Amino acid sequence: MVPNSKRVFYVEPHRSNRFLEVLGARQDVTLDALTHQSDKVEISRVLAGAHAYQVGASRQELVPHLHVTQSLIEQAPHLLIVSSNGAGFDTVDAKACTKAGILVVAQTGGNREAVAEHALGMMLALSKRFVETDRYMRRQNGISRNAFMGHDIIGKTIGIVGLGNVGTRTAELCRGLFRMRVLAYDPYLTTAQIAAHGAEKVELDQLMRESDFVSVHCPYNEETANMIGAPQYALMKPDAYFITTARGGIHDEAALVDVLKAKKIAGAGLDVWVDEPPPHDHPLMAFDTVIVTPHTAGVTHEARVNMGQIAADQMLLALDGGRAPRIQNPEVWSAYVERFRKEFGVTPA
């Protein structure tokens, strides 16, 4: 280890070789690896000297005692930076980090192409009834070509909930490829900002009522938890589809089961769940009109490389005293700057 080096730790298996390659090439950075089987002595040793933690983004893929909690923070007195592997940071207690003067960054936008394409793929598969016909033909002999008639999506209306990195890319694809009308619900954007992305700013109820496809792309937080439930599903057209590649818990799964049973909507495409992965006997698995994936919308080879590069760039920029572009708790900046200065003798700019 180089004297006075900056110490970054991660948990194996790490999902991006690119991140490890880029940081490993720096002579002033020391990489420490833990595993899910690391004992308390090894974990304590690594935490005691760590300046940064590149943490897994999925709760289900990281053992709880290596989530960024108040307990972990108390064992890491020099910890300055927590960087999520993904666009979200479900394994990080951001409030505890802010209180401790720790910067939280995520790789927002790094998988926008992958997730937007996944949402679009679900739209096409649902409207053309690919999965329904595939399942039928594998189970039974003989099929009428008219029994599973689908719909064109050109010129239809898509309602996007959350016009961030993925939402804007989804809007671009829908408008450019299929000349769709785009409605957007995002209370943090103005009418002009939404119009700049070719969309119309509407309230959530109007979006649910007028859309042929509802696609959810907002983060999960206190404001969005259970934001879409029975009252919102009840507004949807009977031939409309509900799609989400955001986070489990934003939509009410039980209420979605009810509306699908009653055939009040045409179907759904679900990539995210309250419990991940969902059990194979989850009630939503029973519908042929529902397409399910295990939170893999953002998991492609290209997205993984891109996320790793962005994570490495952000980490090194922060460790070199710069301001990372994807900070998730900007209110911590002044406290973080003071802690960084005391640690390295440099004031971040």
Automatic annotation (TrEMBL):
<dbReference type="Pfam" id="PF02826">
    <property type="entry name" value="2-Hacid_dh_C"/>
</dbReference>
<keyword id="KW-0520">NAD</keyword>
<dbReference type="InterPro" id="IPR006139">
    <property type="entry name" value="D-isomer_2_OHA_DH_cat_dom"/>
</dbReference>
<keyword id="KW-0028">Amino-acid biosynthesis</keyword>
<comment type="similarity">
    <text>Belongs to the D-isomer specific 2-hydroxyacid dehydrogenase family.</text>
</comment>
<protein>
    <submittedName>
        <fullName>D-3-phosphoglycerate dehydrogenase</fullName>
        <ecNumber>1.1.1.95</ecNumber>
    </submittedName>
</protein>
<dbReference type="InterPro" id="IPR050857">
    <property type="entry name" value="D-2-hydroxyacid_DH"/>
</dbReference>
<dbReference type="GO" id="GO:0004617">
    <property type="term" value="F:phosphoglycerate dehydrogenase activity"/>
</dbReference>
<feature type="domain" description="D-isomer specific 2-hydroxyacid dehydrogenase NAD-binding">
    <location>
        <begin position="120"/>
        <end position="297"/>
    </location>
</feature>
<dbReference type="InterPro" id="IPR029752">
    <property type="entry name" value="D-isomer_DH_CS1"/>
</dbReference>
<dbReference type="InterPro" id="IPR036291">
    <property type="entry name" value="NAD(P)-bd_dom_sf"/>
</dbReference>
<keyword id="KW-0560">Oxidoreductase</keyword>
<feature type="domain" description="D-isomer specific 2-hydroxyacid dehydrogenase catalytic">
    <location>
        <begin position="37"/>
        <end position="326"/>
    </location>
</feature>
<dbReference type="InterPro" id="IPR006140">
    <property type="entry name" value="D-isomer_DH_NAD-bd"/>
</dbReference>
<dbReference type="GO" id="GO:0008652">
    <property type="term" value="P:amino acid biosynthetic process"/>
</dbReference>
<dbReference type="Pfam" id="PF00389">
    <property type="entry name" value="2-Hacid_dh"/>
</dbReference>
<dbReference type="GO" id="GO:0051287">
    <property type="term" value="F:NAD binding"/>
</dbReference>
